[in-house]
Amino acid sequence: MEFITSVLAFLVILTVLVFVHEMGHFLVARRNGVRVETFSIGFGKEIFGWTDRAKTRWKFSVIPLGGYIKMFGDANAASQPSGDIAELSEEERAVSFHTKRLGQRSWIVVAGPLANFLFAWVILVGLFITVGQRFTPPEVGQVMPESAAEAAGILAGDLILELNGAAIERFEEVQRIVQPNPNVPLEVVVLRNGERVVLTAVPRLSEQTNNFGMHRKIGLLGISRGGVEYVRHGFVESLWRAGDEILFLSRATLEAIGEIIIGMRSADELGGPLRIAQMSGLVAEAGLVPTLGFMVMLSVTLGLINLFPIPMLDGGHLLFYAIEFVRGRPLGERAQEFGFRIGIALVVSLMLFVTLNDLIQMEVFDFIKRLAT
Known about the structure:
- It contains 11 helices and 12 strands.
- The protein has helices at 2-31, 90-95, 102-130, 148-152, 171-178, 235-262, 273-286, 288-306, 314-327, 333-361, 364-372; strands at 36-51, 57-71, 133-134, 140-143, 159-163, 166-167, 186-192, 195-201, 204-209, 215-220, 223-225, 230-231.
- A 4-stranded antiparallel sheet has the order 6-5-7-8. It has a two-stranded antiparallel ribbon with strand order 1-2.
Protein backbone atom coordinates (compact mmCIF):
# COMPACT_ATOMS: atom_id res chain seq x y z
CA MET A 1 0.00 0.00 0.00
CA GLU A 2 2.85 2.40 0.85
CA PHE A 3 4.49 1.60 -2.48
CA ILE A 4 1.29 2.40 -4.39
CA THR A 5 0.86 5.64 -2.44
CA SER A 6 4.44 6.67 -3.21
CA VAL A 7 4.11 5.91 -6.93
CA LEU A 8 0.77 7.71 -7.29
CA ALA A 9 1.94 10.74 -5.30
CA PHE A 10 5.16 10.89 -7.30
CA LEU A 11 3.31 10.75 -10.62
CA VAL A 12 0.82 13.43 -9.59
CA ILE A 13 3.48 15.79 -8.22
CA LEU A 14 5.84 15.28 -11.16
CA THR A 15 3.02 15.68 -13.69
CA VAL A 16 1.96 19.00 -12.16
CA LEU A 17 5.52 20.37 -12.09
CA VAL A 18 6.29 19.23 -15.64
CA PHE A 19 2.99 20.67 -16.88
CA VAL A 20 3.78 24.03 -15.25
CA HIS A 21 7.28 24.07 -16.76
CA GLU A 22 6.18 23.18 -20.28
CA MET A 23 3.18 25.51 -20.09
CA GLY A 24 5.61 28.36 -19.50
CA HIS A 25 7.37 27.51 -22.77
CA PHE A 26 4.03 26.95 -24.53
CA LEU A 27 2.35 30.23 -23.58
CA VAL A 28 5.33 32.41 -24.48
CA ALA A 29 5.91 30.50 -27.72
CA ARG A 30 2.30 31.04 -28.76
CA ARG A 31 2.53 34.68 -27.66
CA ASN A 32 5.44 35.12 -30.06
CA GLY A 33 3.63 33.49 -32.97
CA VAL A 34 5.33 30.09 -32.85
CA ARG A 35 3.26 27.06 -33.80
CA VAL A 36 3.45 24.36 -31.13
CA GLU A 37 3.00 20.92 -32.66
CA THR A 38 3.23 18.76 -29.52
CA PHE A 39 2.74 19.23 -25.78
CA SER A 40 3.79 16.00 -24.09
CA ILE A 41 3.78 14.89 -20.47
CA GLY A 42 6.34 12.10 -20.49
CA PHE A 43 8.53 10.67 -23.24
CA GLY A 44 8.25 7.80 -25.67
CA LYS A 45 5.13 6.22 -27.10
CA GLU A 46 1.84 8.10 -26.64
CA ILE A 47 -0.68 6.55 -24.25
CA PHE A 48 -3.53 8.92 -25.06
CA GLY A 49 -4.01 12.48 -26.25
CA TRP A 50 -6.05 14.93 -28.31
CA THR A 51 -5.49 17.66 -30.90
CA ASP A 52 -6.81 21.19 -30.32
CA ARG A 53 -8.01 23.77 -32.85
CA ALA A 54 -4.50 25.20 -33.21
CA LYS A 55 -3.36 21.70 -34.27
CA THR A 56 -1.31 21.16 -31.12
CA ARG A 57 -1.20 17.51 -30.05
CA TRP A 58 -1.64 17.26 -26.26
CA LYS A 59 -0.58 13.85 -25.02
CA PHE A 60 0.54 11.65 -22.15
CA SER A 61 3.45 9.36 -22.98
CA VAL A 62 4.64 6.08 -21.51
CA ILE A 63 7.81 7.28 -19.68
CA PRO A 64 6.56 9.77 -17.04
CA LEU A 65 9.95 11.27 -16.12
CA GLY A 66 9.60 14.72 -17.66
CA GLY A 67 7.97 16.25 -20.69
CA TYR A 68 8.50 18.57 -23.65
CA ILE A 69 6.90 20.80 -26.23
CA LYS A 70 7.84 20.40 -29.90
CA MET A 71 7.62 23.63 -31.85
CA PHE A 72 7.43 24.00 -35.60
CA GLY A 73 10.93 23.66 -37.00
CA ASP A 74 12.18 21.40 -34.18
CA ALA A 75 13.74 18.07 -35.11
CA ASN A 76 13.23 16.59 -31.63
CA ALA A 77 12.29 17.27 -28.02
CA ALA A 78 15.65 19.01 -27.46
CA SER A 79 14.55 21.70 -29.94
CA GLN A 80 17.32 21.10 -32.46
CA PRO A 81 16.43 22.60 -35.86
CA SER A 82 15.15 20.24 -38.54
CA GLY A 83 16.39 20.67 -42.09
CA ASP A 84 17.52 23.86 -43.75
CA ILE A 85 15.74 26.96 -42.45
CA ALA A 86 16.44 28.71 -45.76
CA GLU A 87 14.14 26.22 -47.52
CA LEU A 88 11.07 27.24 -45.47
CA SER A 89 8.29 29.20 -47.13
CA GLU A 90 7.37 32.67 -45.84
CA GLU A 91 4.32 31.21 -44.13
CA GLU A 92 6.42 28.53 -42.41
CA ARG A 93 9.11 31.00 -41.41
CA ALA A 94 6.46 33.10 -39.67
CA VAL A 95 5.55 30.27 -37.27
CA SER A 96 8.97 28.59 -36.87
CA PHE A 97 10.79 28.85 -33.56
CA HIS A 98 14.22 28.97 -35.21
CA THR A 99 13.42 32.01 -37.38
CA LYS A 100 12.38 34.17 -34.44
CA ARG A 101 14.61 36.95 -33.16
CA LEU A 102 17.27 36.07 -30.58
CA GLY A 103 15.37 37.86 -27.83
CA GLN A 104 12.15 36.00 -28.64
CA ARG A 105 13.86 32.60 -28.63
CA SER A 106 15.60 33.41 -25.34
CA TRP A 107 12.33 34.49 -23.73
CA ILE A 108 10.58 31.29 -24.90
CA VAL A 109 13.38 29.13 -23.45
CA VAL A 110 13.65 30.92 -20.10
CA ALA A 111 9.85 30.91 -19.64
CA GLY A 112 9.87 27.26 -18.50
CA PRO A 113 12.12 27.72 -15.46
CA LEU A 114 10.43 31.05 -14.67
CA ALA A 115 7.07 29.26 -14.62
CA ASN A 116 8.44 26.87 -11.97
CA PHE A 117 9.60 29.78 -9.81
CA LEU A 118 6.27 31.55 -10.26
CA PHE A 119 4.37 28.38 -9.36
CA ALA A 120 6.40 27.97 -6.15
CA TRP A 121 5.86 31.64 -5.32
CA VAL A 122 2.06 31.39 -5.78
CA ILE A 123 1.86 28.30 -3.54
CA LEU A 124 3.90 29.96 -0.80
CA VAL A 125 1.83 33.14 -0.94
CA GLY A 126 -1.33 31.04 -0.58
CA LEU A 127 0.13 29.07 2.34
CA PHE A 128 1.38 32.18 4.16
CA ILE A 129 -2.07 33.80 3.87
CA THR A 130 -4.14 30.77 4.88
CA VAL A 131 -1.99 28.47 7.05
CA GLY A 132 0.80 30.84 7.98
CA GLN A 133 4.58 30.87 7.77
CA ARG A 134 6.63 28.91 10.28
CA PHE A 135 7.72 31.81 12.43
CA THR A 136 9.19 30.72 15.75
CA PRO A 137 10.72 33.41 18.00
CA PRO A 138 14.52 32.83 18.28
CA GLU A 139 14.34 32.11 21.99
CA VAL A 140 16.50 29.31 23.36
CA GLY A 141 14.26 26.74 25.00
CA GLN A 142 16.93 24.28 26.13
CA VAL A 143 20.71 23.93 25.92
CA MET A 144 21.97 20.39 25.44
CA PRO A 145 24.71 19.20 27.84
CA GLU A 146 28.25 19.22 26.42
CA SER A 147 27.04 20.97 23.28
CA ALA A 148 28.59 23.80 21.27
CA ALA A 149 26.01 26.17 22.76
CA GLU A 150 26.94 25.21 26.32
CA ALA A 151 30.63 25.69 25.52
CA ALA A 152 29.82 29.14 24.13
CA GLY A 153 27.90 30.18 27.24
CA ILE A 154 24.43 30.27 25.69
CA LEU A 155 21.68 29.87 28.29
CA ALA A 156 18.05 28.78 28.18
CA GLY A 157 15.86 31.85 27.85
CA ASP A 158 18.38 33.79 25.74
CA LEU A 159 16.85 35.59 22.77
CA ILE A 160 19.15 35.41 19.73
CA LEU A 161 19.37 38.86 18.11
CA GLU A 162 22.22 38.39 15.64
CA LEU A 163 24.19 35.47 14.28
CA ASN A 164 27.34 35.82 12.21
CA GLY A 165 26.48 39.48 11.54
CA ALA A 166 22.92 38.78 10.34
CA ALA A 167 19.86 40.03 12.24
CA ILE A 168 17.72 37.15 13.44
CA GLU A 169 13.94 37.38 13.32
CA ARG A 170 12.95 33.73 13.78
CA PHE A 171 14.49 30.47 14.94
CA GLU A 172 14.43 29.01 11.43
CA GLU A 173 17.02 31.64 10.41
CA VAL A 174 19.36 30.32 13.10
CA GLN A 175 19.17 26.86 11.55
CA ARG A 176 19.83 28.26 8.07
CA ILE A 177 23.10 29.82 9.23
CA VAL A 178 24.32 27.12 11.61
CA GLN A 179 23.70 23.96 9.59
CA PRO A 180 25.97 24.84 6.61
CA ASN A 181 28.79 26.00 8.92
CA PRO A 182 30.09 23.09 11.02
CA ASN A 183 33.35 23.84 12.85
CA VAL A 184 33.16 27.54 11.86
CA PRO A 185 33.29 30.14 14.69
CA LEU A 186 30.10 32.22 14.66
CA GLU A 187 29.48 35.41 16.60
CA VAL A 188 26.22 35.17 18.53
CA VAL A 189 24.50 38.23 20.01
CA VAL A 190 21.80 37.38 22.56
CA LEU A 191 19.44 39.38 24.73
CA ARG A 192 19.77 38.26 28.37
CA ASN A 193 17.98 40.01 31.22
CA GLY A 194 17.53 43.08 29.05
CA GLU A 195 21.22 43.29 28.05
CA ARG A 196 23.05 42.41 24.84
CA VAL A 197 25.64 39.69 25.33
CA VAL A 198 28.18 38.82 22.62
CA LEU A 199 29.36 35.21 22.46
CA THR A 200 31.30 32.96 20.05
CA ALA A 201 29.95 29.51 19.18
CA VAL A 202 31.48 26.81 16.99
CA PRO A 203 28.76 24.47 15.59
CA ARG A 204 29.77 20.84 15.88
CA LEU A 205 29.70 18.52 12.90
CA SER A 206 26.88 16.00 13.09
CA GLU A 207 25.64 13.38 10.64
CA GLN A 208 21.88 13.09 10.63
CA THR A 209 19.24 11.06 8.84
CA ASN A 210 16.11 13.02 8.03
CA ASN A 211 12.53 11.75 7.79
CA PHE A 212 13.13 10.65 4.20
CA GLY A 213 16.13 8.46 5.03
CA MET A 214 18.67 10.86 3.55
CA HIS A 215 22.02 11.23 5.31
CA ARG A 216 23.71 14.61 5.56
CA LYS A 217 26.42 16.30 7.59
CA ILE A 218 25.42 19.57 9.24
CA GLY A 219 26.48 21.94 11.99
CA LEU A 220 24.63 21.90 15.31
CA LEU A 221 24.69 24.29 18.26
CA GLY A 222 22.75 21.95 20.54
CA ILE A 223 19.82 24.20 21.36
CA SER A 224 16.08 23.71 21.04
CA ARG A 225 13.44 26.29 20.35
CA GLY A 226 10.95 27.51 22.88
CA GLY A 227 7.96 26.48 20.75
CA VAL A 228 6.69 26.30 17.17
CA GLU A 229 4.38 28.97 15.79
CA TYR A 230 2.75 29.73 12.44
CA VAL A 231 2.07 33.37 11.64
CA ARG A 232 -0.35 34.40 8.91
CA HIS A 233 0.59 37.36 6.77
CA GLY A 234 -1.44 39.76 4.68
CA PHE A 235 -1.35 39.56 0.91
CA VAL A 236 1.35 42.20 0.34
CA GLU A 237 3.66 40.88 3.07
CA SER A 238 3.14 37.32 1.83
CA LEU A 239 4.38 38.39 -1.60
CA TRP A 240 7.82 39.47 -0.42
CA ARG A 241 8.16 36.77 2.25
CA ALA A 242 7.42 34.10 -0.36
CA GLY A 243 10.01 35.69 -2.66
CA ASP A 244 12.55 35.69 0.16
CA GLU A 245 11.86 31.98 0.82
CA ILE A 246 12.41 31.13 -2.85
CA LEU A 247 15.66 33.09 -2.89
CA PHE A 248 16.83 31.17 0.17
CA LEU A 249 15.90 27.80 -1.36
CA SER A 250 17.69 28.74 -4.59
CA ARG A 251 20.82 29.92 -2.80
CA ALA A 252 20.90 26.89 -0.49
CA THR A 253 20.47 24.50 -3.44
CA LEU A 254 23.25 26.12 -5.45
CA GLU A 255 25.57 26.20 -2.43
CA ALA A 256 24.90 22.52 -1.72
CA ILE A 257 25.63 21.55 -5.34
CA GLY A 258 28.80 23.66 -5.29
CA GLU A 259 29.98 21.99 -2.08
CA ILE A 260 29.34 18.55 -3.57
CA ILE A 261 31.34 19.48 -6.69
CA ILE A 262 34.36 20.68 -4.68
CA GLY A 263 34.12 17.75 -2.25
CA MET A 264 32.92 19.57 0.88
CA ARG A 265 29.75 17.47 0.92
CA SER A 266 29.09 13.88 -0.06
CA ALA A 267 27.45 13.10 -3.39
CA ASP A 268 25.37 10.56 -1.44
CA GLU A 269 23.02 13.47 -0.68
CA LEU A 270 21.96 13.60 -4.32
CA GLY A 271 18.58 11.94 -4.76
CA GLY A 272 16.99 10.60 -7.92
CA PRO A 273 13.50 9.51 -9.00
CA LEU A 274 13.28 6.60 -6.54
CA ARG A 275 13.98 8.74 -3.48
CA ILE A 276 11.72 11.50 -4.78
CA ALA A 277 8.97 8.90 -5.14
CA GLN A 278 9.61 7.70 -1.59
CA MET A 279 9.50 11.26 -0.27
CA SER A 280 6.35 11.98 -2.29
CA GLY A 281 4.57 9.12 -0.56
CA LEU A 282 5.64 10.30 2.89
CA VAL A 283 4.54 13.90 2.39
CA ALA A 284 1.27 12.76 0.79
CA GLU A 285 0.48 10.73 3.91
CA ALA A 286 1.38 13.75 6.08
CA GLY A 287 -1.29 15.91 4.43
CA LEU A 288 -1.89 18.67 1.91
CA VAL A 289 0.31 21.37 3.47
CA PRO A 290 3.50 19.22 3.62
CA THR A 291 2.79 18.05 0.05
CA LEU A 292 2.50 21.64 -1.18
CA GLY A 293 5.72 22.54 0.66
CA PHE A 294 7.48 19.61 -1.01
CA MET A 295 6.18 20.73 -4.40
CA VAL A 296 7.60 24.21 -3.75
CA MET A 297 11.04 22.74 -3.08
CA LEU A 298 10.92 20.49 -6.16
CA SER A 299 9.61 23.28 -8.39
CA VAL A 300 12.44 25.61 -7.39
CA THR A 301 14.98 22.82 -7.88
CA LEU A 302 13.53 21.96 -11.30
CA GLY A 303 13.71 25.61 -12.34
CA LEU A 304 17.31 25.93 -11.20
CA ILE A 305 18.55 22.70 -12.77
CA ASN A 306 17.02 23.63 -16.11
CA LEU A 307 19.01 26.87 -16.07
CA PHE A 308 22.34 25.03 -15.79
CA PRO A 309 24.42 25.70 -18.95
CA ILE A 310 24.23 22.11 -20.15
CA PRO A 311 23.26 21.51 -23.80
CA MET A 312 19.81 19.91 -24.05
CA LEU A 313 18.62 21.77 -20.93
CA ASP A 314 17.13 25.27 -21.15
CA GLY A 315 20.35 26.73 -19.81
CA GLY A 316 22.26 25.07 -22.63
CA HIS A 317 20.06 26.80 -25.19
CA LEU A 318 20.62 30.12 -23.41
CA LEU A 319 24.38 29.46 -23.51
CA PHE A 320 24.19 28.96 -27.28
CA TYR A 321 22.15 32.16 -27.60
CA ALA A 322 24.72 34.08 -25.55
CA ILE A 323 27.44 32.86 -27.91
CA GLU A 324 25.24 33.85 -30.86
CA PHE A 325 24.82 37.33 -29.37
CA VAL A 326 28.60 37.75 -29.00
CA ARG A 327 29.48 36.29 -32.42
CA GLY A 328 26.63 37.96 -34.28
CA ARG A 329 25.59 34.62 -35.77
CA PRO A 330 24.55 31.19 -34.45
CA LEU A 331 26.97 28.36 -33.80
CA GLY A 332 27.37 25.94 -36.70
CA GLU A 333 25.20 22.84 -36.88
CA ARG A 334 28.13 20.51 -36.16
CA ALA A 335 29.10 22.47 -33.03
CA GLN A 336 25.52 22.45 -31.78
CA GLU A 337 25.16 18.73 -32.52
CA PHE A 338 28.38 18.00 -30.63
CA GLY A 339 27.17 20.11 -27.71
CA PHE A 340 23.82 18.32 -27.55
CA ARG A 341 25.55 14.94 -27.55
CA ILE A 342 27.69 16.02 -24.62
CA GLY A 343 24.56 17.30 -22.86
CA ILE A 344 22.72 14.03 -23.37
CA ALA A 345 25.72 12.08 -22.04
CA LEU A 346 25.91 14.30 -18.95
CA VAL A 347 22.19 14.09 -18.21
CA VAL A 348 22.04 10.30 -18.72
CA SER A 349 25.16 9.81 -16.58
CA LEU A 350 23.68 11.93 -13.80
CA MET A 351 20.39 10.03 -13.93
CA LEU A 352 22.21 6.70 -13.68
CA PHE A 353 24.33 7.98 -10.80
CA VAL A 354 21.44 9.34 -8.71
CA THR A 355 19.37 6.21 -9.37
CA LEU A 356 22.27 4.03 -8.18
CA ASN A 357 22.55 6.37 -5.20
CA ASP A 358 18.87 5.83 -4.47
CA LEU A 359 19.23 2.06 -4.59
CA ILE A 360 22.19 2.20 -2.18
CA GLN A 361 20.55 4.65 0.25
CA MET A 362 17.32 2.65 0.23
CA GLU A 363 19.39 -0.50 0.92
CA VAL A 364 17.93 -2.32 -2.09
CA PHE A 365 21.21 -4.09 -2.83
CA ASP A 366 21.49 -5.22 0.80
CA PHE A 367 17.94 -6.58 0.60
CA ILE A 368 18.74 -8.55 -2.59
CA LYS A 369 21.93 -9.86 -0.98
CA ARG A 370 20.02 -11.09 2.06
CA LEU A 371 17.52 -12.88 -0.22
CA ALA A 372 20.36 -14.59 -2.09
CA THR A 373 22.14 -15.85 1.03
